[in-house]
Amino acid sequence: MKRASPPNFDQPAFKQALGQFATGVTVITTRAASGQLIGITASSFNSVSLNPPLVLWSLATRSASMPVFRANSHYVVNVLAASQLELCKRFATVKGDRFEGVSHAEGDTGMPVLDGALAWFECHNRSRYEEGDHVIFVGEVERCGVHENAAEIAPLVFQNGQFHGLKPL
Questions:
Q1: 50 touches 95 (CB < 8 A)
Q2: Cα–Cα distance, 133 to 69 (Å, whole number)
Q3: Exposed/middle/buried for 163, CB within 10 Å: 0-12, 13-18, 19+?
Q4: 97-146 tens-digit pLDDT
Q5: Domain annotation for the chain: domains and CATH numbers
Q6: 120 near 51, Cβ under 8 Å?
Q7: Which pTM value belongs to this model?
């Protein structure tokens, strides 16, 4: 099999090109063996398969929460609404207890489901693939749900370094 050619661009050009792709924003949540709740903001979420129901997301190998996500059997992908921008920023930047004052419920596996999420996917940590400077997590969805008013709620979207809400065209 022929190998890839070396890139003909630098990292800033690559990041700029990637930034043009609009993505939804999620908070991935889990619980450490100690009981501590862990959550991180991620825009690398995608569907993989309907049968079996599979989704994927990725996390930087240097992330402080990597050992917990790698070791755990379950996690929840919480899809954020545009009104949850502050929650997105909190799970992306806050040091210490990111869950302090954050309303959530416990899913069937004991993992946190964020209140007000546009949708959520409770996943079994099916497989992991180390690629470059990230690990790709594939989750087998055991349960999912949609906000009761989802049809009227704009999703939180990230594109070109900025957050947006969407309206139908």
A1: no
A2: 16
A3: middle
A4: 999 999 999 999 999 999 999 999 999 999 999 999 999 999 999 999 99
A5: 24-156 (2.30.110.10)
A6: no
A7: 0.94
